[in-house]
Amino acid sequence: MTEYERSRTMPALPEHVFDQAADIDQMDAWLPQELHVDAGEPPAVTVHEDRTDQDVSALLRARRDQMRLEWGTREQGGYTGWLQVAGMDSGTSEVTVHLSFFEEGHDPGEQAVRTALDRSLQRLEEQVRLRVDNAAG
User: Fold this and answer.
1) Running DSSP on this structure, what letter comes out for residue 41?
2) How far apart (Å, rounded) are the C-alpha atoms in residues 100 and 5?
């Protein structure tokens, strides 16, 4: 099993960050660009991966009371992950994403995963800023 974790501080309240991250209709705006989520009947979702051009059955659970998203593949059991939002001082939040790959064939490699996670967290921050700015103005 291989695990990866990345974090980023965002200048927004944890509720705003979590609401943006958990909005299934907006996930394509921040997830790695080669992944697309179709809601189906939550918690059941379908994830399309451009790299393999395959649809994979997965589960996605949003636990708002814990500010946590959890996901994983259903039939294959190839990977799981979670996103945790924690409030910090002065209205900022820390977002941590953790991925676990159980089969070597599902793991795209350390550099690819770290780059994808960093870019995803950056895009999530951009989406949160847009949402907060639009709500304020």
Assistant:
1) S
2) 9
Residue 102's SS3 state is coil
Distance CA 50, CA 121 (A): 20
Indicate the length of the chain as a whole number: 137
Return the amino acid letter for 34. E
Q: For 84-133, what is each residue's pLDDT tens digit? A: 999 998 889 999 999 999 887 778 889 999 999 999 999 999 999 988 77
DSSP of 46-85: EEEETTTTEEEEEEEEEEGGGTEEEEEESSS--EEEEEEE
Place of tokens 């399309």: 48
Residue 2 pLDDT class (50, 70, 90 cuts): very high
Tens of pLDDT, residue by residue over 50-91, are 878 888 889 999 999 999 999 998 666 688 999 999 999 888
Degrees, nearest 5: CA angle 99-76-60: 55
